[in-house]
Predict the structure.
Amino acid sequence: MIQTISSVPYDGQKPGTSGLRKKVRVFQQPNYAENFIQSVFDVVEGKTGTSLVIGGDGRYHNRTVIQTAIRMAAANGYGRVLVGAGGILSTPAASHVIRKYGASGGLILSASHNPGGPDEDFGIKYNIANGGPAPEKVTDAIYARTRTINRWLTVDAPDIDLDTPGRVTVGGMTVEVIDSVADYAALMETLFDFDTIRSRVADGFTMSFDAMSAVTGPYATEILERRLGFAPGTVCNGNPLEDFGHHHPDPNLVHAKALYDRMMSADAPDFGAASDGDGDRNLIIGKGIFITPSDSLAMLAANAHLAPGYAAGLKGIARSMPTSAAADRVAEALGLPAFETPTGWKFFGNLLDAGMATICGEESAGTGSDHVREKDGLWAVLLWLNILAVRDMPAKALAEEHWARFGRNYYARHDYEAIETEKADALMAALNAALASLPGQSFGPLTVSAADNFAYLDPVDGSESRNQGVRILFVCGSRIVFRLSGTGTEGATLRVYLERYEGVDGTLDAETPAMLADLIAAAESVAGIARFTGRTAPDVVT
Ligand code: G16
């Protein structure tokens, strides 16, 4: 029997770069999660009788919201819910499950790389039938609905046993608890040359994978240790914990410092990698070398044909605007189309669906392909392993060879976190106001050639997205991008992206901070970061 629960709208339920992310305490308010989920269900057309996938990254509050969402799905007319065992599905695995089982969509409960626990973050994201994040027209409609919602629907049914795979009924709807690892591991076996990787492992190739006490632990243990033969213990922090062991499950040089230090030490394994809270991000570190996400995208694209799933070549390469142009040089050399989209994986969906791009990537440690419609951390690790196994060379040698062929895009991102929103908005407003006057101005040795606020016209559906970040381009080809993060839960985070290109005859083996020093100084002069925010140094440099 369907129950209708009265409610009133909450302010601020606007999905950001990747769904609705708030503190757990915010989500725990009466009707808060229910309002958002009901708004999704009210907006989604043609759902009656279809399948819905539900899973999350295992963080605190995951199980509670999953049980609620299952009852609400039953009341809203879904025919079947597929839920990952233990309530767990990595984001790329959820994307695969949606596609494989022909679901009409999925609810992914995750705040990705943000910390977890009663005082930390939670999130809900809706993915559409192609397996990818809902595009802006859908998230805008969901937001509009949250502003008028006055009731949500549920059924009177007890919690289900999330830990035992099998089938139960809730309010007349079937719920299948599925093994979340098996389908994903099987997909990876179709894409990569497991035999060649296995033989290198047998010959002594070693790696270390930091699952950061987050969702990829079970996936990585199954694939790396059981199927590829890496030694037990190759996967560190492999048990998903509700609070990620009090760490940020963010695979960058700050939060995965232990892995970085190990990879720079004399007894480092051959290869190091990490993934984030929900398994869609990746960190790649070779023995003695950190590979930036932008470089990783370019190097993977240049070598992807060595993996069976990509042997026929790529259709195109897409990157988000703040990601370095390293991938563009590969596209040019291979005669492939290159696409520049706004930040957010949702913008790649149309290109992948239309067969215009095969590989996509973002500076924020996301890389993926048309095998699913999310970025995929383990996929990137496996493609690296496949390439290194076939080439039979260390990651460092591969990177050096790549730069010698394409030149090198020195790159860093400086994050200023938890700034007061008004101050961050004032900084961006001043930058926008200055755009027209910037060309021709010099900052130290750098002269501005062009400045704009990035807008994107989707080549598939013609939709336009404006205000996607301020770009300052310099005559020498260097670039600074300023934008505010759309994934934080506290104040505003200013991201400053710095990029300098050195051609094949330039300096290819220098330290990044030294190569970017002029750009860092120019960023301060152009934007007045200290003046507007009171901050004199970034909180995180990646
Ligand atoms: C999300 C999106 C990514 C985006 C990233 C950073 O990642 O899925 O596409 O690049 O946020 O966004 P922002 O710079 O706005 O914080 P994730 O891993 O958090 O889902």
Q: What stands out?
A: Residues 512-527 form the longest helix (16 residues). The pocket of 1,6-di-O-phosphono-alpha-D-glucopyranose is lined by residues 17-18, 112-113, 280-281, 343-345, 362, 364, 366, 485-487, 495 (CB under 6 Å). The chain has a mean pLDDT of 97.
